[in-house]
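call fold(seq) -> tokens
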Amino acid sequence: VQLQASGGGLVQAGGSLRLSCAASERTFSRYYMAWFRQAPGKERDFVAAISWSGGSTYYADSMKVRFTISRDNAKNTVYLQMNSLKPEDTAVYYCAARNGVYRSDHRAYDYWGQGTQVTVSS
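ret:
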């Protein structure tokens, strides 16, 4: 499956962004979807994941209050709503798909989007 992430940009601290990730396949609903992020010189970190139907969601502890993951299987798209952004949220954000159940380890994901840059200014 091919994934295309979009929606990144430059925002001031306290602002919001909504990332989107569009998938190429009609079998999109068979994949667990997730967002990861990677800051320069750092590991790729788990942000959030969502189950096939959207009924279950998972978050990194530091993001569960400010970020919301959702999906629209009719549009083959997963979203990440990010509120109250902080400078430390600055990173490239990647969407990923997994043919299996929830995992937070990026090595468990089979397909990746190209990433979208999020920059939060102080």
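The CA atoms of residues 54 and 84 lie 23 Å apart.
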